[in-house]
Amino acid sequence: MDRIEDAALVVEEGRIAWMGRRADLPVAWADAERVDGGGAWATPGFVDPHTHLVFGGDRSGEFNRRLHGVSYAQIAAEGGGIRETVRATRAATVAELVEAAEGRLEELRSRGVVHLEAKTGYGLDLEAESRQLEAYAALKAKGWNLDVTLLPAHDIPTEFAGDAERYAALVATEWLPELVRRFPGLARYGDVFIEKGVFTVEQGRRIFLAGKALGLTPRVHADELSWTGGAELAAELGGASADHLMFCSDSGMKAMAATGVTPILLPGTTLFLGMRDWAPARKMIEAGCAVALASDFNPGSCPCLDPLLILRLGCLQLRMTFEEAFTAMTLHAARSLGQPDLGHLQVGARAEVLLWDLKDPLELVYWVGGSFLPRRMNVTS
Ligand code: NIG
Ligand code: FE
Q1: Assigned fold of 46-336
Q2: CATH 2.30.40.10 residue ranges in the chain?
Q3: Is 22 exposed, middle or buried (0-12, 13-18, 19+ CB in 10 A)?
């Protein structure tokens, strides 16, 4: 992370055309329209590379049970958890899904998130997964910057209880091709929740390979509640990312570093689930991984729309430096989504610039709990 004091930044047609010390501004732009940053720090906008944005209902009732001592796993075993949100999502209209998601996007935007990844996975049948995709298509048509991931293998739906194998086969052979056929070009990624009691590495591999044949690059829910080898699988398949990774193995880290898989860490989830198993970010950085951070925004394990909380947990619990955590929420997050024009302020980047009225960006973490809102740079051309 480089800093330029008393800087100027030139924007042309929505992209950064020049950046440097104000005194060095080339004469070509001497008469350009000027926006006074007022002494603020200009940074790239946040990119959130793992969210479950579109869903119906909420899980505050379940949360209250957790506060009374019932575990997330126990609630899931009783048919609640993800399946509770599946019921609410199946019952919602596309318009209701879009309206709720748009409120969330506005909140994220006001807090500095300029681009995000968003998954299906609360339909778990062909029609409800399709309606989640309809909602994402509508949001994109309204101008929201999203990368969509197909996640019909987020859980085993009640209709397939005890038969993950049959469900995984159906997703791989029928649903993924049908969803891609119905929404050509909408989804860029495929995801599977690899976890004990959900999908095995073998079932995941089958679904990911079917997705790859359709152009869906793997992003893996990996090693979240226990070690399952999800990071190793992401590396084997040439995936874009392995996400969560609280229980990632040393060989999984090495494999990710060797193959350029981005480990995406979700400390908001560790916090909200009341766990102490913070992902081993330092070991991953030392292994040579380009670690990214994300919110995992979802109604069950992390109903958090605040990128600053994630940044703070990155520093305070994952023991990343400020520079590492900020880079993880910008440059590394954008790269994991194949968005080379986002997450940095080099010449050519999209001018998604945040202005922070602070003496030093470190204050975003230091004044922990401070509700800093960035200003956006409004340029007309
Ligand atoms: O990323 N791990 C699976 N999925 C979500 C939880 C979703 C939910 O509880 O609704 C996660 O933590
Ligand atoms: Fe998730």
Answers
A1: TIM Barrel (3.20.20)
A2: 7-44+344-376
A3: exposed
Rounded to the nearest whole angstrom, what is the distance from the C-alpha of residue 136 to the centroid of ligand 1? 19
Residue 332: HSE in the Cβ half-sphere, 13 Å Cα cutoff: 23
pLDDT of residue 379: 61
Q: What is the pLDDT of residues 133-165, one digit of tens each?
A: 999 999 999 999 999 999 999 999 999 999 999
CA 11/CA 22 separation, integer angstroms = 14
In one-letter notation, the amino acid at residue 304 is: C
Superfamily of domain 7-44+344-376: Urease, subunit C, domain 1 (2.30.40.10)
Q: Which ligand is closest to the CA of 149, given by its number?
A: 2
Q: Check whether 380 has a pLDDT greater than 60.
A: no
Near ion ligand 2, which residues have CB within 5 Å? 296
Q: What is the mean pLDDT of residues 206-221?
A: 98
Q: Two tokens at 290?
A: 């380009």
**pLDDT at residue 239 above 90?**
yes
- Cβ of 356 below 6 Å from ligand 1: no
Tell me the pLDDT tens digit for each residue of 264-277: 999 999 999 999 99
User: Best of 298, 302, 310 to mutate for ligand 1, by most ligand atoms within 8 A of CB?
Assistant: 298
pLDDT for res 339: 98
